[in-house]
Design brief:
The protein is about 35% helix and about 25% strand. The protein is of the alpha+beta class. The strands form 2 sheets. A 3-stranded antiparallel β-sheet has the order 1-2-3, covered by helices on one side. It has a 3-stranded antiparallel β-sheet with strand order 4-6-5, with helices on both faces.
Length: about 150
């Protein structure tokens, strides 16, 4: 998502009208009735900021397709390179779990690359239970419902 957005909008984001259009597209992506390519599902994207500094984003796919169940999961997140290794990804993932619960997703699938130790630690810190490795991704399930507190370490 972010890579696609960067290719499409950067460096035009400095233009207020272009940025406003981008924000509208992010908001529209969460609506069920928004036209989208086949295989893409509605997704809510939230930005993680400190004051006016962008730190990262987290996106929640509203449902899983067979491909997402195999490879991508329900949640994708990234932190700006200069803000990494400061706990932001863990904070973002923890903060989004009630949003996921409100969407009726419990448990939620989160994946990462096998060599991404940092992301694995984030997922596990948020209660991720390892299921398996498929299609080159580690797959974890996190409870989002009322029994979530007892599952989070």
């Amino acid at each position: 998502m972010v890579g696609r957005d960067i290719l499409r909008y950067h460096p035009r984001w400095r233009d207020p009208q272009v940025f406003a259009g981008y924000v509208e597209s992010v908001i529209a992506d969460a609506r069920e009735d928004t036209p989208r390519p086949e295989g893409r599902v509605p997704a809510t994207t939230l930005w993680y900021v400190d004051g006016d500094a962008y730190l990262g984003r987290i996106a929640v796919r509203h449902r899983a397709t067979p491909r997402l169940l195999e490879w991508g999961g329900h949640i994708g997140y990234d932190v700006r390179p200069s803000a990494r290794r400061r706990g932001h990804a863990t904070a973002m993932l923890r903060a989004v779990l009630p949003v996921v619960a409100d969407l009726g997703i419990d448990p939620v699938l989160v994946t990462c690359d096998p060599d991404n130790t940092g992301s694995r630690k984030v997922i596990e810190a948020c209660g991720g239970a390892f299921e398996d490795e498929r299609s080159g991704k580690l797959r974890f399930w996190i409870r989002t419902g009322s029994d979530r507190a007892s599952a989070v370490r």
